[in-house]
Amino acid sequence: MRSISNEKNLKSKKILLRLDLNVPLKDGNITDTTRIDKILPTLNFLIRQKTKIIILSHVGRPKGKIVKELSLKPISEELRKKLKITVKLITENINEIKNKDFFEKFDEKILILENIRFYEEEEKNDHKFAKHLASLGDIYVNDAFSCSHRAHTSIHLISKYLPSFSGLQLDLEINALNKITSEVTKPVTCIIGGSKISTKIDIIKNLIPKFDNLIIVGGMANNFIEYFGNNIGISIKEKNCRHVVEEIISLSKKMKCKIIYPEDVLVSNDLNGSSKNKELDQILNDEMILDIGPKTINKIVSIIDNTKTILWNGPAGYFENPNFANGSIKIAKKIIEKNKSNKIFSVVGGGDTVSLLNSLNVVYNFNFVSTAGGAFLEYLEGKNLPGITALN
Predict the structure, then answer these.
(1) Is the Cβ–Cβ distance between 269 and 288 less than 8 Å?
(2) What are the DSSP calls for 186-242, one per residue?
(3) Rounded to the nearest 5°, which phi and psi values hold at 24?
(4) Is residue 207 part of a domain?
(5) 74 with 110, same domain?
(6) 351: annotated active-site residue
(7) Which one of 124, 196, 205, 278 is the catalytic residue?
(8) What distance in Å separates the CA atoms of residue 230 and residue 285, rounded to the nearest whole number?
(9) N or C: which end of the chain has fewer CB within 10 A?
């Protein structure tokens, strides 16, 4: 990929900049600005280069219809506040904007075209729409890694009609993921959670040959606990997954990757209850596993101590109840401790894990925290992402 950060002579160029500004909105107000904050370096770089920035982005899933509640207006106002420059939302129908001279009449430094998903051609990856979008600018920049697993017009086909580059945030995301998949400093450990093994099986199978340790936590660990002959009571588990567990164990032995699952757990009779520490052979029929226990925490902390590269995707327990947040908090603190002394490279991804780190206000204590969701997971599975292959 060619990065826009390496380009010279950008002055006065019209940059079609694809961003993911799909922030959560409530009553027209932004409730989390993380995605906006992450792309500010790219915007500031282009502003310093004296370019004309034309943003393409979306909010929600309007499915080709104009939905007033999904307007980019709150985002344009937030960008104006954060960048302290003029920003204008262009509400004209994109298909009726005839050429890039249209933008000469505006004095604003940044222009935002209204929600690109208001147009049904966007999700159809439409050639005609791609060509028309490209006619509005001189250069295309993709800084929306989190959308790059979508074969949509403003992510994929548009690159066929303009000189195309990656943005600064996309570069950071790819570099971080490469450090845990291709350019690995060993020993390397993956802590993976979530409720379903089936949604993570391709990631696990792709990472086992590259990783030294695979630590299974969260709901999916219950399948392993039960597989090895223990009662898990009324704990969450995925049905009909015994063969998946066997496949993971078999592959890990073949590739000499250690599988670690909980040795002791915290249980309760319901999600809002208090916690009891239990050995695996002590779990009663009316109890559910909601966190890892102290012996398991100590084992994971010891592994992190001897790890140079770590990927964390999925909290260790039901952290929404503070009684079951201890495992996740101890993991976070240990990684942060190693990070501060530059003894580990840490990448974190997954909505629940990021929510946990936000609640602890420690997001910036990790080398890289991905908000990319589906794109993050598909990259870890080894899949080609349309938005990335389009830039190669």
Answers:
(1) yes
(2) SSEEEEE--S-STTTHHHHHHHTTT-SEEEE-HHHHHHHHHHTT---TT----TT-H
(3) -70, 135
(4) yes
(5) yes
(6) yes
(7) 196
(8) 11
(9) C
Q: How far apart are CA 211 and CA 265, in angstroms?
A: 25
Long-range contacts, stretch 250-255, CB < 8 angstroms, 24+ apart: 251/205, 251/208, 252/208, 252/214, 255/208, 255/209
- Is 196 tagged catalytic? yes
The torsion angles phi and psi of 300, rounded to 5 degrees, stand at -65, -40
Strands 276-279 and 139-143: unpaired
Clarify whether 383 is annotated catalytic.
no
Give the count of domains, the chain: 2
Are 160 and 254 part of one and the same domain? Answer: no
Residue-wise pLDDT for 72-85, tens only, equals 999 999 999 999 99
pLDDT, tens only, 368-390: 999 888 899 999 999 999 999 99
Calpha distance 79→94 (Å, rounded): 21
Q: What is the DSSP string of 94-142?
A: GGG--SGGGGGG---SEEEES-GGGSHHHHTT-HHHHHHHHTT-SEEEE
Q: Which residue has the higher pLDDT, 71 or 374?
A: 71
Check: CB of residue 42 under 8 Å from CB of residue 168: yes
35 as an active site residue: the answer is yes
d(CA 39, CA 238): 37
Q: Are residues 146 and 259 located together in one domain of the fold? A: no
Active-site annotation holder among 160, 253, 254, 374: 374
From 18, 35, 109, 150, active-site residue: 35
Q: How many helices (H) and strands (E) does the chain have?
A: 14, 17
In Å, how far are 26, 81, 132, 388 from 157, measured between CA atoms? Answer: 32, 32, 11, 12
Q: How far apart are CA 306 and CA 291, in angstroms?
A: 23
Distances (CA, A) of 190 to 217, 226, 375: 11, 21, 18
H/E run at residue 279:
strand 276-279
176, part of any domain: no
Task: Tell me the Ramachandran region of residue 189: left when phi exceeds 0, alpha when psi lies from -120 to 50, beta otherwise.
Answer: beta
